[in-house]
Specification:
Blueprint (H helix, E strand, L loop, with lengths): L11 H10 L3 E6 L3 H13 L3 E4 L15 E2 L3 H5 L3 H17 L5 E9 L4 H16 L8 E4 H7 L10 E9 L2 H14 L3 E3 L2 E9 L2 E9 L5 E11 L5 H8 L7 E12 L8 E4 L8 E6 L2 E5 L3 E3 L10 H14 L11 E10 L13 E5 L4 E6 L5 H15 L34 H10 L15 H10 L5 H8 L2 H4 L1 H19 L3 H15 L13 H5 L3
Parallel strand pairs: 1-2, 1-10, 2-7, 4-12, 10-18
Antiparallel strand pairs: 3-6, 4-6, 5-6, 8-9, 9-10, 11-14, 11-15, 11-16, 12-13, 13-14, 17-18
The structure holds flavin-adenine dinucleotide.
Amino acid sequence: MNIFTNQIILKRQEMIQMLNLISEWDICIIGGGATGLGIAVDAASRGYKTLLLEKFDFAKGTSSRSTKLVHGGVRYLQQGNIKLVMEALKERGLLLKNTPHLVKNQSFIVPNYKWWEGAFYGLGLKAYDWMSGSLGLGPSQILNKEETLAQAPTLDPEGLRGGVLYHDGQFDDARLAIHLAMTAVDHGAVVINYMSVEGLLKANKKICGLAVKDMIDGKEFEIKAKAVINATGVFTDSILKLDNQKAETLISLSQGIHIVLDKEFLPASTAIMIPRTDDKRVLFAVPWHNKIIVGTTDTPVVNVSAEPIASEEEIEFVMHHITRYLSKDPTYADIRSVFAGLRPLVKGNNKLTSVLSREHFISISDSELITITGGKWTTYRKMAEDVMEIVIPKAGLPEKECITKDLQIHGYKEAVDFDSPLYYYGSDKEKIQSLVEKDSSLSTLIHPALPYIMAEIVWAVQNEMCMTVEDALSRRTRALLLDAKAAIETAPQVANMMAKEMKKDDEWIKNQIDIFNRLAKNYLPISKHELHSADKLKTIN
Ligand SMILES: Cc1cc2nc3c(=O)[nH]c(=O)nc-3n(C[C@H](O)[C@H](O)[C@H](O)COP(=O)(O)OP(=O)(O)OC[C@H]3O[C@@H](n4cnc5c(N)ncnc54)[C@H](O)[C@@H]3O)c2cc1C
């Protein structure tokens, strides 16, 4: 049951007031990415007093930087990780059932240029179909050359023998994160962004709460909790160290980048899956919000960062592979945006991060800090269920059944037309349209090259805890990922509109634009790349 009475869905100040009203929380979650938000939904929907704290914005970390696939993972099938694939395929089906407004059935072509590839990938993908069981999204098919080109007309026809068509799911990661936050709140949770956990409180050597700091006004709070869950992704080790300076590190970092191109490079609705890159991985080119996302890479990195940056080599790697497969080669000037994310992989002995497990991992420290990490966006629900089954007895909470297998996610709406504007709001779409009915100026596009209208900015500030220009352009809308230059150009307009809504002054506006511009320039392809030509790239081996 929603404890916030005035129809405001996510309002930060009201949430903060709850910190003073609730003397002890049942469950306190550190981290507002897919993992933490999934746990908040699970815990709140079971009826526990649930608090989630996020240092930056919801999904600011890895959870807004994925390939946007809800998938079993064809790559993990290649690696023979049947358990992970079967679990993820089941979760894919549940996510599609409970979030039909955000997750869609996406067809993929695996192009075949070698004689053996049709039979090889055809068989593998039949196994993938079989593993999905009743939650399958449609049977895979072996196609001849003409049928393959009908699905993906911009594939390089030279040497093409045919292709294998298969199905997986696709979604908007940051939007799902916001809707998970709203679902948690719909069930009574308190979720707060820009609230950093700075210390762990202990009594008798056991964790009993948290010291937290509001990153916006600097206020500090002490919070009591029966159970504390560390769901901080690539920052997992820093929370483990807050618990115990001598704690062993758990996480290996692997960076993955994507480039974003205009739709003309893949004009049909079918995505491409390149089954074997030079480093023996897979590479996707997937239609997304009328653009194409191409990626990803798997580069071991040492330093953790909330704002990772794609390297020249990574951009070159993605461009090199995609130009091999397309009839019209993109150049660096065609790249609309580049974004990078860090995978929190559970450490193994192997130095290659691409073979470290994507399965999730749960640990409990001597002081009863519960840590969950690894996994995938696709499996967030199962990760939450698994950790809650451990937390409930550990924290002495009354047993309550997990209900998330059948829980509709905020915005739930059936029969969504994925080509219609604002579809990604699901059942909230009408509320945004009603803002436009009251003030027609809000129907103006935020930028001619971007598909978002001003009403979305107003809605995000009023109802989705959108606090900064970056929140608005990176995660409430996906402007920064779709077209970084356009996002930079519209930042002043968006800052002004936000300032009006939030009653902020000119200094705030200037500051917000400066901060956003500094961050957004890392999403523009590195300028020296403009000197390269696609032909030059093709010669790189
Ligand atoms: C390149 C790439 C592509 C991927 N593609 C896919 C895909 O297509 N499909 C799929 O299923 N999975 C994909 N994944 C995996 C998926 O994105 C991750 O498994 C998932 O997002 C991890 O979520 P998380 O919540 O554990 O971590 P995060 O999203 O990083 O969340 C952790 C949060 O903790 C917060 N935090 C840190 N310290 C503190 C503190 N002291 N106080 C409060 N908060 C704190 C951080 O700010 C952060 O927001 C991909 C991953 C990468 C890197």
